[in-house]
Protein backbone atom coordinates (compact mmCIF):
# COMPACT_ATOMS: atom_id res chain seq x y z
CA UNK A 1 0.00 0.00 0.00
CA UNK A 2 1.00 3.62 -0.44
CA UNK A 3 2.57 5.71 2.32
CA UNK A 4 1.30 9.18 3.16
CA UNK A 5 3.17 12.42 3.88
CA UNK A 6 2.18 15.79 5.28
CA UNK A 7 1.54 18.54 2.75
CA UNK A 8 3.78 21.44 3.66
CA UNK A 9 3.44 22.54 7.27
CA UNK A 10 -0.26 21.67 7.29
CA UNK A 11 -1.92 18.76 9.05
CA UNK A 12 -3.16 17.32 5.74
CA UNK A 13 -1.67 14.00 4.66
CA UNK A 14 -1.55 13.01 0.98
CA UNK A 15 -0.51 9.77 -0.67
CA UNK A 16 3.14 10.07 -1.66
CA UNK A 17 2.18 8.48 -4.97
CA UNK A 18 -0.58 10.75 -6.28
CA UNK A 19 -2.58 9.94 -9.39
CA UNK A 20 -2.56 12.68 -12.04
CA UNK A 21 -4.82 12.74 -15.09
CA UNK A 22 -3.00 15.24 -17.31
CA UNK A 23 -2.63 14.05 -20.94
CA UNK A 24 -4.41 10.74 -20.38
CA UNK A 25 -8.04 11.40 -19.41
CA UNK A 26 -10.34 12.59 -22.21
CA UNK A 27 -7.28 12.70 -24.46
CA UNK A 28 -4.86 9.77 -24.63
CA UNK A 29 -7.23 7.06 -23.37
CA UNK A 30 -10.97 6.47 -23.50
CA UNK A 31 -13.22 7.15 -20.55
CA UNK A 32 -13.81 3.49 -19.67
CA UNK A 33 -10.08 2.79 -19.48
CA UNK A 34 -9.53 5.98 -17.48
CA UNK A 35 -12.17 5.02 -14.94
CA UNK A 36 -10.72 1.52 -14.55
CA UNK A 37 -7.29 3.03 -13.96
CA UNK A 38 -8.60 5.35 -11.24
CA UNK A 39 -10.33 2.41 -9.57
CA UNK A 40 -7.06 0.46 -9.69
CA UNK A 41 -5.29 3.42 -8.07
CA UNK A 42 -7.83 3.33 -5.25
CA UNK A 43 -7.39 -0.42 -4.83
CA UNK A 44 -3.63 0.08 -4.52
CA UNK A 45 -4.00 2.64 -1.74
CA UNK A 46 -3.71 5.91 -3.64
CA UNK A 47 -6.02 8.45 -2.01
CA UNK A 48 -4.82 11.68 -3.67
CA UNK A 49 -5.88 12.69 -7.19
CA UNK A 50 -4.62 15.68 -9.16
CA UNK A 51 -6.29 17.32 -12.15
CA UNK A 52 -6.84 20.78 -13.65
CA UNK A 53 -9.62 22.65 -15.41
CA UNK A 54 -7.40 23.09 -18.47
CA UNK A 55 -6.77 19.37 -18.98
CA UNK A 56 -8.66 18.43 -22.15
CA UNK A 57 -10.42 21.81 -21.80
CA UNK A 58 -12.30 20.76 -18.62
CA UNK A 59 -13.16 17.23 -19.82
CA UNK A 60 -10.49 15.55 -17.66
CA UNK A 61 -12.12 16.88 -14.50
CA UNK A 62 -15.44 15.39 -15.59
CA UNK A 63 -13.85 11.99 -16.17
CA UNK A 64 -12.16 12.05 -12.76
CA UNK A 65 -15.43 13.10 -11.12
CA UNK A 66 -17.22 10.18 -12.73
CA UNK A 67 -14.46 7.77 -11.73
CA UNK A 68 -14.61 8.86 -8.07
CA UNK A 69 -18.40 8.84 -7.86
CA UNK A 70 -19.62 6.59 -5.05
CA UNK A 71 -16.33 6.71 -3.12
CA UNK A 72 -16.32 7.95 0.47
CA UNK A 73 -15.50 11.62 -0.05
CA UNK A 74 -13.76 12.01 3.30
CA UNK A 75 -11.25 9.31 2.32
CA UNK A 76 -10.01 11.23 -0.73
CA UNK A 77 -7.77 14.23 -1.36
CA UNK A 78 -8.72 15.95 -4.61
CA UNK A 79 -6.50 18.63 -6.18
CA UNK A 80 -7.30 20.87 -9.12
CA UNK A 81 -5.89 24.05 -10.66
CA UNK A 82 -6.71 27.37 -12.31
CA UNK A 83 -4.84 29.61 -14.77
CA UNK A 84 -4.74 28.27 -18.34
CA UNK A 85 -7.48 29.13 -20.85
CA UNK A 86 -10.72 27.16 -20.67
CA UNK A 87 -14.14 27.23 -22.32
CA UNK A 88 -14.38 29.43 -25.43
CA UNK A 89 -11.08 31.04 -24.31
CA UNK A 90 -12.30 34.61 -24.17
CA UNK A 91 -10.31 37.48 -22.62
CA UNK A 92 -11.33 36.55 -19.05
CA UNK A 93 -11.22 32.77 -19.47
CA UNK A 94 -7.61 32.65 -18.35
CA UNK A 95 -5.27 33.95 -15.66
CA UNK A 96 -5.62 34.47 -11.92
CA UNK A 97 -8.03 37.39 -11.77
CA UNK A 98 -10.73 37.28 -9.11
CA UNK A 99 -13.32 36.78 -11.85
CA UNK A 100 -11.55 33.81 -13.42
CA UNK A 101 -10.71 32.17 -10.09
CA UNK A 102 -14.31 32.20 -8.89
CA UNK A 103 -15.77 31.06 -12.19
CA UNK A 104 -13.14 28.33 -12.39
CA UNK A 105 -13.58 26.93 -8.87
CA UNK A 106 -17.35 26.78 -9.35
CA UNK A 107 -16.94 24.97 -12.67
CA UNK A 108 -14.35 22.56 -11.28
CA UNK A 109 -16.53 21.61 -8.32
CA UNK A 110 -19.48 20.94 -10.58
CA UNK A 111 -17.45 18.75 -12.94
CA UNK A 112 -15.78 16.87 -10.10
CA UNK A 113 -19.09 16.31 -8.35
CA UNK A 114 -17.94 17.63 -4.99
CA UNK A 115 -18.62 20.58 -2.70
CA UNK A 116 -14.94 21.25 -2.07
CA UNK A 117 -11.41 20.26 -3.03
CA UNK A 118 -8.61 19.67 -0.60
CA UNK A 119 -6.11 21.67 -2.67
CA UNK A 120 -6.71 24.48 -5.17
CA UNK A 121 -3.60 25.48 -7.11
CA UNK A 122 -2.49 28.42 -9.22
CA UNK A 123 -1.38 26.55 -12.34
CA UNK A 124 1.16 29.28 -13.16
CA UNK A 125 2.04 32.77 -11.93
CA UNK A 126 -0.06 35.52 -13.52
CA UNK A 127 2.08 38.56 -14.32
CA UNK A 128 -0.99 40.52 -15.51
CA UNK A 129 -2.95 40.32 -12.25
CA UNK A 130 -1.80 41.96 -9.00
CA UNK A 131 -0.69 39.23 -6.61
CA UNK A 132 -2.80 40.87 -3.91
CA UNK A 133 -5.96 40.32 -5.99
CA UNK A 134 -5.10 36.68 -6.63
CA UNK A 135 -4.31 35.87 -3.02
CA UNK A 136 -7.41 37.68 -1.72
CA UNK A 137 -9.54 35.63 -4.11
CA UNK A 138 -7.89 32.44 -2.88
CA UNK A 139 -8.50 33.50 0.72
CA UNK A 140 -12.18 33.96 -0.06
CA UNK A 141 -12.36 30.57 -1.81
CA UNK A 142 -11.00 29.00 1.39
CA UNK A 143 -13.36 30.95 3.65
CA UNK A 144 -16.31 29.87 1.52
CA UNK A 145 -15.28 26.25 2.06
CA UNK A 146 -14.68 25.54 -1.62
CA UNK A 147 -11.02 24.65 -1.02
CA UNK A 148 -9.29 23.62 2.19
CA UNK A 149 -5.75 24.59 1.18
CA UNK A 150 -4.07 26.66 -1.52
CA UNK A 151 -1.06 25.68 -3.59
CA UNK A 152 0.72 26.89 -6.71
CA UNK A 153 2.55 25.36 -9.64
CA UNK A 154 5.93 26.29 -11.11
CA UNK A 155 6.35 29.49 -9.08
CA UNK A 156 9.83 30.90 -8.57
CA UNK A 157 11.43 31.21 -5.15
CA UNK A 158 10.65 34.93 -5.07
CA UNK A 159 7.03 34.37 -6.09
CA UNK A 160 6.63 31.73 -3.40
CA UNK A 161 8.00 34.12 -0.78
CA UNK A 162 5.68 36.95 -1.82
CA UNK A 163 2.67 34.64 -2.02
CA UNK A 164 3.36 33.06 1.36
CA UNK A 165 3.65 36.50 2.98
CA UNK A 166 0.26 37.56 1.63
CA UNK A 167 -1.31 34.24 2.59
CA UNK A 168 -0.10 34.67 6.16
CA UNK A 169 -1.47 38.22 6.21
CA UNK A 170 -4.83 36.97 4.90
CA UNK A 171 -4.79 34.09 7.41
CA UNK A 172 -4.73 31.06 5.15
CA UNK A 173 -2.05 28.52 4.27
CA UNK A 174 0.00 28.35 1.11
CA UNK A 175 1.11 24.73 1.45
CA UNK A 176 2.48 23.46 -1.84
CA UNK A 177 4.18 24.05 -5.16
CA UNK A 178 3.82 21.72 -8.15
CA UNK A 179 6.97 21.83 -10.31
CA UNK A 180 8.51 19.48 -12.79
CA UNK A 181 11.16 17.44 -10.99
CA UNK A 182 13.06 14.28 -11.80
CA UNK A 183 16.59 12.92 -11.78
CA UNK A 184 16.92 14.53 -15.23
CA UNK A 185 15.27 17.88 -14.36
CA UNK A 186 16.61 19.27 -11.09
CA UNK A 187 16.20 23.03 -11.52
CA UNK A 188 14.18 23.51 -8.32
CA UNK A 189 16.99 22.31 -6.07
CA UNK A 190 19.00 25.54 -6.12
CA UNK A 191 16.43 28.10 -4.91
CA UNK A 192 12.85 26.81 -4.94
CA UNK A 193 13.41 23.93 -2.53
CA UNK A 194 15.43 25.85 0.09
CA UNK A 195 12.92 28.71 0.02
CA UNK A 196 10.01 26.27 0.27
CA UNK A 197 11.56 24.50 3.24
CA UNK A 198 11.93 27.84 5.00
CA UNK A 199 8.29 28.76 4.30
CA UNK A 200 6.68 25.43 5.16
CA UNK A 201 5.80 24.70 1.53
CA UNK A 202 6.33 21.26 0.02
CA UNK A 203 6.54 20.01 -3.55
CA UNK A 204 4.02 17.87 -5.43
CA UNK A 205 6.21 16.98 -8.38
CA UNK A 206 5.07 16.23 -11.90
CA UNK A 207 6.92 14.11 -14.43
CA UNK A 208 9.07 12.22 -11.90
CA UNK A 209 9.85 9.76 -14.70
CA UNK A 210 10.68 12.56 -17.19
CA UNK A 211 7.63 11.89 -19.35
CA UNK A 212 8.43 8.18 -19.32
CA UNK A 213 12.06 8.49 -20.41
CA UNK A 214 13.23 7.32 -16.98
CA UNK A 215 11.42 4.02 -17.46
CA UNK A 216 14.22 3.06 -19.84
CA UNK A 217 11.81 2.09 -22.62
CA UNK A 218 13.14 4.70 -25.07
CA UNK A 219 16.38 3.46 -26.61
CA UNK A 220 19.11 5.55 -28.27
CA UNK A 221 19.07 5.32 -32.05
CA UNK A 222 15.76 3.43 -32.08
CA UNK A 223 12.23 4.53 -33.08
CA UNK A 224 9.99 5.46 -30.16
CA UNK A 225 7.66 2.63 -29.07
CA UNK A 226 4.25 2.54 -30.73
CA UNK A 227 1.53 3.93 -28.49
CA UNK A 228 3.99 5.69 -26.17
CA UNK A 229 3.66 9.27 -25.02
CA UNK A 230 6.22 10.30 -27.63
CA UNK A 231 3.67 9.39 -30.32
CA UNK A 232 0.78 11.30 -28.72
CA UNK A 233 0.18 14.30 -30.98
CA UNK A 234 -2.63 15.50 -28.67
CA UNK A 235 -0.08 16.91 -26.27
CA UNK A 236 2.29 14.34 -24.84
CA UNK A 237 4.79 14.30 -27.71
CA UNK A 238 5.84 17.93 -27.48
CA UNK A 239 6.71 17.70 -23.79
CA UNK A 240 8.99 14.71 -24.15
CA UNK A 241 11.12 15.88 -27.09
CA UNK A 242 13.91 17.47 -25.06
CA UNK A 243 14.50 14.17 -23.25
CA UNK A 244 14.71 12.07 -26.42
CA UNK A 245 18.25 13.06 -27.39
CA UNK A 246 20.57 10.08 -27.81
CA UNK A 247 22.97 11.30 -25.14
CA UNK A 248 20.10 11.43 -22.61
CA UNK A 249 18.76 8.01 -23.59
CA UNK A 250 22.25 6.52 -23.40
CA UNK A 251 22.73 7.86 -19.89
CA UNK A 252 19.34 6.52 -18.80
CA UNK A 253 20.31 3.01 -19.88
CA UNK A 254 22.98 3.09 -17.16
CA UNK A 255 20.18 3.05 -14.58
CA UNK A 256 19.17 -0.52 -15.40
CA UNK A 257 22.06 -2.25 -13.57
CA UNK A 258 21.68 0.21 -10.69
CA UNK A 259 18.01 -0.72 -10.33
CA UNK A 260 18.82 -4.42 -10.59
CA UNK A 261 21.43 -4.09 -7.87
CA UNK A 262 18.82 -2.40 -5.66
CA UNK A 263 16.27 -5.11 -6.46
CA UNK A 264 13.73 -2.74 -8.00
CA UNK A 265 12.60 -1.66 -11.47
CA UNK A 266 13.85 1.44 -13.26
CA UNK A 267 10.49 3.28 -12.90
CA UNK A 268 10.51 2.52 -9.18
CA UNK A 269 14.07 3.82 -9.00
CA UNK A 270 13.06 7.09 -10.68
CA UNK A 271 10.11 7.69 -8.36
CA UNK A 272 12.02 6.68 -5.24
CA UNK A 273 14.71 9.18 -6.26
CA UNK A 274 12.32 12.16 -6.15
CA UNK A 275 10.71 10.91 -2.94
CA UNK A 276 14.17 10.82 -1.41
CA UNK A 277 14.00 14.64 -1.31
CA UNK A 278 12.45 15.53 2.09
CA UNK A 279 10.73 18.58 0.59
CA UNK A 280 8.70 16.37 -1.78
CA UNK A 281 5.30 15.35 -0.41
CA UNK A 282 4.09 13.49 -3.48
CA UNK A 283 5.13 12.29 -6.92
CA UNK A 284 2.43 12.54 -9.59
CA UNK A 285 2.04 9.47 -11.76
CA UNK A 286 -0.35 8.81 -14.60
CA UNK A 287 -1.28 5.66 -16.43
CA UNK A 288 -3.06 4.68 -19.63
CA UNK A 289 -3.69 1.14 -18.35
CA UNK A 290 -4.50 -0.07 -14.82
CA UNK A 291 -1.63 -2.55 -14.71
CA UNK A 292 0.94 0.24 -15.17
CA UNK A 293 0.19 1.40 -11.64
CA UNK A 294 1.00 -1.99 -10.15
CA UNK A 295 4.70 -1.34 -10.70
CA UNK A 296 4.95 2.37 -9.92
CA UNK A 297 3.10 2.32 -6.58
CA UNK A 298 5.72 -0.09 -5.26
CA UNK A 299 8.12 2.88 -5.20
CA UNK A 300 6.29 4.05 -2.08
CA UNK A 301 8.39 3.30 0.95
CA UNK A 302 11.56 2.46 -0.98
CA UNK A 303 14.60 4.01 0.68
CA UNK A 304 17.60 4.43 -1.58
CA UNK A 305 20.91 3.99 0.17
CA UNK A 306 23.68 6.53 -0.31
CA UNK A 307 25.59 4.37 -2.78
CA UNK A 308 22.53 3.86 -5.00
CA UNK A 309 21.67 7.55 -5.00
CA UNK A 310 25.28 8.45 -5.79
CA UNK A 311 25.31 5.97 -8.68
CA UNK A 312 22.12 7.52 -10.13
CA UNK A 313 23.53 11.01 -9.86
CA UNK A 314 26.80 9.96 -11.47
CA UNK A 315 25.05 8.23 -14.37
CA UNK A 316 22.86 11.22 -15.17
CA UNK A 317 25.17 14.11 -14.23
CA UNK A 318 26.28 14.84 -17.84
CA UNK A 319 22.68 15.25 -19.05
CA UNK A 320 20.68 16.37 -15.99
CA UNK A 321 19.43 19.98 -16.11
CA UNK A 322 20.22 21.89 -12.91
CA UNK A 323 20.21 25.56 -13.96
CA UNK A 324 18.00 27.52 -11.52
CA UNK A 325 17.36 30.11 -14.24
CA UNK A 326 15.01 27.59 -15.86
CA UNK A 327 12.51 28.27 -13.06
CA UNK A 328 12.10 31.84 -14.31
CA UNK A 329 10.91 30.92 -17.79
CA UNK A 330 7.96 28.62 -17.04
CA UNK A 331 5.12 31.08 -16.39
CA UNK A 332 4.20 33.14 -19.49
CA UNK A 333 4.82 36.88 -19.17
CA UNK A 334 1.42 37.49 -20.74
CA UNK A 335 -1.72 35.39 -20.49
CA UNK A 336 -2.19 32.71 -23.11
CA UNK A 337 -5.50 32.87 -24.98
TrEMBL record:
Write down the Pfam families for this protein, in alphabetical order.
Aldo_ket_red (PF00248)
Annotated NADP-dependent oxidoreductase domain ranges read: 17-316
Q: What class of enzyme is it?
A: oxidoreductase
Source organism, top-level taxon: Bacteria
> InterPro entries, from UniProt?
K_chnl_volt-dep_bsu_KCNAB-rel, NAD(P)_OxRdtase_dom_sf, NADP_OxRdtase_dom
EC number(s): the record gives 1.1.1.-
Is Oxidoreductase among the key words of this record?
yes
Residues folding into a coiled coil are none
Mention one GO molecular function.
oxidoreductase activity
Which keywords does UniProt give here? NADP, Oxidoreductase
Q: Which CDD domains match?
A: Aldo_ket_red_shaker-like
**Similarity comment:** Belongs to the shaker potassium channel beta subunit family.
Name of the protein this chain belongs to: L-glyceraldehyde 3-phosphate reductase
Amino acid sequence: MVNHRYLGSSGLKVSEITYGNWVTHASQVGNDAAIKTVHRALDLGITSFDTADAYANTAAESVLGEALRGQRRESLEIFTKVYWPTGPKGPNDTGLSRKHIFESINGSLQRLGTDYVELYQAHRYDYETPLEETMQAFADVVRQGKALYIGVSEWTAEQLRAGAALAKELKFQLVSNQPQYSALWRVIEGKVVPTSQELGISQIVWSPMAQGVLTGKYLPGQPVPAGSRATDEAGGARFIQDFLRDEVLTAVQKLKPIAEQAGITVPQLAIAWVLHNPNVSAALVGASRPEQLDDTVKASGIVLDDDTKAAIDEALAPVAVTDVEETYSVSPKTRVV
